[in-house]
Amino acid sequence: MNELAHNRHLFIEDLARRLSALETRQRRMNALDYRVHARMLRHALAGVPAKHLQVLTTYEVVCEVLDNRGFDECGLLQSAGAQARALRDTTDALLRRLQRGSREAA
């Protein structure tokens, strides 16, 4: 890991630690601080491959950001597990059948 990537990793870990402290009431909640840190975390995680962030998944806030990214990219929550793709395919098939049925009824 080069120095830039290492520094980014430390920055992300620091933000995750701060957000975690706010969420677990180890630090007094301040709405502005929370929003600023959450936005900074989202921006810091942008473009970083998920495999490089596996170490940071001990922080729930990092997992949430990764879930949101996965949902935005492919419509699946990463934390849903291996069955998520099968459930998504089943749901898509059901929606297609319902749409065909509504077109035929009209």
Layout: helices, strands, pairs:
Layout: H1 3-23, H2 31-45, H3 60-74, H4 83-105
Helix pairs in contact: 1-2, 2-3
Molecular structure report:
By secondary structure, the protein is mainly α. Helices cover 70% and strands 0% of the residues. Helix 1 packs antiparallel against helix 2 and helix 2 (31-45) crosses helix 3. The radius of gyration is 19 Å and the shape is elongated. The model has no long low-confidence stretch (mean pLDDT 81).
What would the keywords be for this entry?
106 residues; mainly alpha; 70% helix; elongated
SSE order, one letter for each helix or strand: HHHH
Helices, by number, come to: 4
Radius of gyration: 19 Å
| Strand proportion | under 5%
* Largest beta-sheet details: none
- Report the helical percentage: 55-70%
Number of strands: 0
Which stretches are low in confidence, meaning pLDDT under 50 for 5 or more residues running? none
Distance between the termini: 60 Å
Would you tell me the structural class of the helices and strands?
mainly alpha
Overall 3D shape:
elongated
